[in-house]
Amino acid sequence: MSVNRTGCLVAVVVVAAAMFTAALYLYFFTYPKLKDLAASNLAFELDRRIEAFHLEFREWPKGDETDILLQLQGDNPGNLVFVTPDFPIERNRIVDAWGNPVFFQPDAEGRPWAISPGRSGKPGTKDDIDRTVAAEKAHTVFPDGTPPFTPIPAENVPRVDGPATTTP
Question: Which of 7, 27, 54, 121 lies in disulfide reach of 100, CB 3.0 to 4.6 Å?
Fold first, then answer.
């Protein structure tokens, strides 16, 4: 039996090229879509927590992004925690899957809506991501509405590395 080395080499090159092409496709097309979905899920969950804050205190959290985060972390009249330490927080800001700070856009009633600046990292651009995609998916999972979030007393939630900071 003789082995055709050229045939084996061609097969190895074809397989390597196919794997490289698949990796490029995943990196440039699938991975960004997954990050967009994660950002939409984060915005959806933040909006749920903000709604729970409103139901509890009959007012919306106010101020800039850091002020809103602090209120959601327990700096509120009831010392209730709506955003737990497992949220992605860097330098006193919630960050999206792209590593960009999430911003809050208040509506006419003063309700802040969470928005990810998307891949560009710049608020107010066409790649901004809100809760829309995640809300559509939640509607299929919870046709009668998403269950409300129940706030946690602050004394039952461990603080990670001081107030409002999980990473230096």
Answer: 121
What tens digit of pLDDT does each residue of 79-121 get? 999 998 889 999 889 999 889 999 999 999 999 999 999 889 9
Report whether 83 contacts 165 (CB < 8 A): no
Contacts of residue 9, Cβ cutoff 8 Å, sequence gap at least 6 = none
- What b/e sequence results for 77-95 when a residue is b if at least 16 CB atoms lie within 10 Å of its CB, and e otherwise? eeebbbbeeebebeebbbb
Pick from 24-33, 41-50, 88-97: least confident: 24-33
| Distance of alpha carbon 61 from alpha carbon 113, whole angstroms | 11
pLDDT at position 126: 87
Assess whether pLDDT exceeds 50 at residue 165: no
pTM here? 0.72
Separation between Cα atoms, residue 87 and residue 94, nearest integer Å: 7
- Please state, as a whole number, how many other Cβ atoms lie within 10 Å of the Cβ of residue 31: 12
User: What are the structural domains, with CATH classification, of the chain?
Assistant: 5-156 (3.30.700.10)
Packing angle of the helix pair 31-57, 132-141 (nearest 10 deg) = 80
Q: Pull the structure tokens for residue 109.
A: 């009633």
Question: What are the CA-CA distances from residue 154 to residues 41, 48, 68, 75, 148 (Å)?
Answer: 24, 18, 16, 9, 18
